[in-house]
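Troubleshooting log. The previous structure file for this entry was overwritten by mistake, so regenerating from the original sequence record. Sequence copied from the archived sheet and checked twice against the printout by T.R.
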Amino acid sequence: MPTLQRGVLPVATLATVLAGVAASTWYFGARTDVEPPRRVEERIARTPTSPPVSASVAPRAGRDEALLALREELDSERARRTELSSAVDRLSERVDELVEELEDLRDEAGELPPSQVHRPGITWLDLEVLAGSGLGEAEIEGIRSNYEELEMERLNLGNRSAREGWRQSGRYAREAKKLADRLLTLREELGDESYDWMLYASGRPNRIAVRRVLESSPGWRSGIRNGDVISSYAQESIFTQTDLLNITTRGRVGDLVRVIIWRSGKRETLYIPRGPIGVSVKPHRMRPEPLD
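Regenerated output below.
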């Protein structure tokens, strides 16, 4: 193999290098859509770049989101507090109404005649009151018999439920409702006039009195005022609030009906459109008119 001189490239190697340089020159010179590497580097250097993101931007964004969430939670808490305050006001008004009802019931209990003596658990029927009602002896005896039978059943129910341990159960409520339904049946058997005297003679409320009237209501426009005692509606006797609620749902809304009230001891007649009257009422005890 022939010996090469130091620093001298072989002819074939030199030819290869020159051919590569020529090819590169032709490629970048002939192509117009491809930039040489140096020009690309220069263009990148001249392109404006975005300023570096501060390290504090991300934490600040997190704080803003947390602050927004806290504000939303605060607004929600304020809304809940407002609603709670309104509920407390409504409950306070209801407590005041219940206190008034309790005072009224105590006043009514204080109006019972001296001849009526109460024992725990028993509501006595005052026969002397019935004697001044204008009812006949047979009618009074029928009232007494039916009333005492129901009262005895009520006492037995209370005693049995206490002995057997279901005094506070739904069973007791159902049995008590049956007795209440029996009392309504007794109203149908006796008639409203005798039933009215029975309620009064037993010390029970037999009327409803108006506690408040909405000034924009049909009742107010028709003349009903606080303290009025409602005796009848559309020629039907009213003994309880339930009676009034039931009867106002009958007939055609808007038809005028006659309503009998008592005001300051005097009987008055009003005409009210059938439907909701717009009043709140309370139990009331009033001596019925004697029968002819």
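The chain has a mean pLDDT of 78. Archived copy saved in two places this time.
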